[in-house]
Amino acid sequence: MRKENEVINQILDFANNEDRVRAVMMNGSRVNANAPKDIMQDYDIVFFITDIEDLSYKINQKWIKAFGELVIMQQNDFDDGSYIFLMQFKNGVRIDLSFKDIKNIREIVKEDTLSKILLNKDDNELTIPIPNDTGYYVLKPSKKEFDKLLNESWWIQTYVAKGIWRDELPLAKYMFDVILMDCIRTLLSWHIGEKHEWNINVGKCGKWFEKYLSDEMYNDFVSIYPTIDYDEMWESLFRAGRFIRKLGNSLAESLEYHYPTKDDINVTEYIKKIKTLPRDAKEFR
Fold first, then answer.
1. CA dihedral of residues 11, 16, 21, 25 (deg, nearest 10)
2. Which CATH architecture best describes the domain 4-135?
3. Which regions of the chain carry the CATH code 1.20.120.330?
4. What's the pLDDT tens digit per position in 53-97?
5. DSSP conformation letters of 186-252
């Protein structure tokens, strides 16, 4: 596998030989001093080009071979005319290469605090701050945001319970694994953010939770993830409720917000009834 400086030099060599490419920027974890370094990190690269409406890079894609042999590629377009090539190469290198209009460079470089100019052929006066992850810090929730998330955290549990009772595994798993766990990850992000005075980046989807949580809390969190066994899903659902209760009350106290105790009690009692309800029940008792 090629070293980072080799990959970047290859990118810059290509850009220097392309007259349409006027500047090159790198974003993401490779310019984040706080991100763990490993061989799986992507190269998030932006080519600022002239004439964004010229689609030659999209029409004739032979240029990609200059970077290696592909495993798979995905190409996406955006409303502003820019586009991106997501490229996984067989040598392990992953390059996400965006093409953007050079006319917009001064605005675009301000959009992401994790940005570093690697090449600038024209605008010698363009300067940007040293890359930092402040733009990715956990934001303190407003009271409205807190209330909405806690309501969703309890509301969605009724869907999970109903899905289990009906033997609708795909629905139950989606409601649990996707929606409920997303609520819990947000709560955990807020918990960590509050402990660090809202000056912390927990990573995409909370991938760095383990770094910032106690062993006990992290183990409690991962124990919530359910399997496809319905009995285990029920236990995971009740563990999720206890976890939400613990985090929610703590955050409500710290932020001086209100924890929805009534929703907590009512939903917990309701899903306990569903758990004991016979599968062929004709009435809800």
1. 50
2. 2-Layer Sandwich (3.30)
3. 137-276
4. 889 999 999 999 999 999 999 999 999 999 999 999 999 999 999
5. HHHHHHHHHHTTT-----GGGTTHHHHS-HHHHHHHHTT---S-HHHHHHHHHHHHHHHHHHHHHHH
